[in-house]
Amino acid sequence: MDKKQVKLAVAALFKVVEANRKKSSLLPEEDVVYLQVAFKKVPKTRRIPFRIKIPHSLYNAETDVCVITKDPASDFAQLQKKGNGIESNVTVLGVSKVKSDFKLYEQKRQLCNSYDAFFADERVIPILPRLLGKKFYQTKKKPVALKLQKTKMVTSLQDAMMHTSFHVGPGVCSAIKAGHTNHEQAELVDNIMALSAKIFELTKKGNIQSINIKTAESMALPVFNSLPTVQDFEEEEKEEKKPRKKRKKDSEEKKEDQEDKKDKKKRKRQGKKD
Questions:
Q1: Which of 68, 138, 232, 269 registers the highest number of CB atoms within 10 A of its CB?
Q2: Nearest CA among 28, 10, 7, 39 for reference residue 213
Q3: Does residue 192 register a pLDDT over 60?
Q4: What pTM was estimated for this model as a whole?
């Protein structure tokens, strides 16, 4: 990954965002910057999200964070105390409160919209899909699991907030949050370089076709592009030459046809004898 190219792309992205804001006052003051990764082939890796550490957190003083804990929630009140080292605004909800106060669909939707990010004690993670509902999990606010120990709860949350999630989907494209436009350009460059290095490690660099950066409203700007190699062409030829596997259904249908033919022949023979 060429750091100079990343710097140029980040600078260009900031100019695009600023120009868009001047055109419309309805656009948000802060835009999330995504790293868009295109693969040559669907990566053969786990589908569980990878947590990747970044130098500069996605969360700042304006971020509203909800932490769902096991009962009693008062045991984790330290997470929302001011001056504990966590810059963001933290609200702690016990799992019983989530269960009693957010039963209806509209209540769950309001909960989802009230916070920028959700974290949860790993001990309550298994029951949250049932409590929060499918629609909640279809958003990009799926709760991140935390190991909340009474003596290290603040450290655990701080560490989690220094990571971002990388989801490898069933297709050849994936997106990952790299930062936001309130970051300094140098900070965003640091995050992109750290993320790219880890993604190359997790998915094999040779399988990455391109990496772009963008916001929800901007065009995609390239930071990495891989030209086709001789090996790529050779692998394509091998795939084309491979004989297609016969489907089980086809073989079963052929067997049935053969049995039908045998039955017909038997009937004809019996008819002639009669």
A1: 68
A2: 10
A3: yes
A4: 0.75
Give 31 or 97, the one with higher predicted confidence. 97
- Evaluate if residue 217 carries a pLDDT over 90: no
End-to-end CA distance of the chain: 84
What's at 28, amino acid-wise? P
Give the pLDDT score at 168: 82
Q: What is the torsion angle, in degrees rounded to the nearest 10, for the CA atoms of residue 79, residue 96, residue 66 and residue 166?
A: 110
Query: Closest Cα to residue 115, out of 164, 60, 161, 64?
Result: 64
Rounded to an integer, what distance in angstroms lies between the CA atom of residue 146 and that of residue 133? 20
Q: Are 211 and 72 in contact (CB under 8 A)?
A: no
The DSSP output letter for 168 is: -
In this prediction, residue 13 carries a pLDDT of 93
pLDDT band, residue 121 (cuts 50/70/90): very high
Residue 43's contacts (CB-CB under 8 Å, 6 or more residues apart) are: 168, 203, 204, 207
Mean per-residue pLDDT over the chain, rounded:
83
- Asked whether the beta carbons of 87 and 163 are under 8 A apart, the reply is no
Q: Name the nearest CA neighbour of 14 among 30, 37, 35.
A: 30
Reduced to 3 states, what is the DSSP secondary structure of residue 255? helix
CA-to-CA distance for 121 and 88, rounded, in angstroms? 18
Alpha-carbon gap, residue 56 to 10, rounded angstroms: 15
Structure tokens belonging to residue 54: 């970044």
Percent of the chain's residues with pLDDT above 70: 79
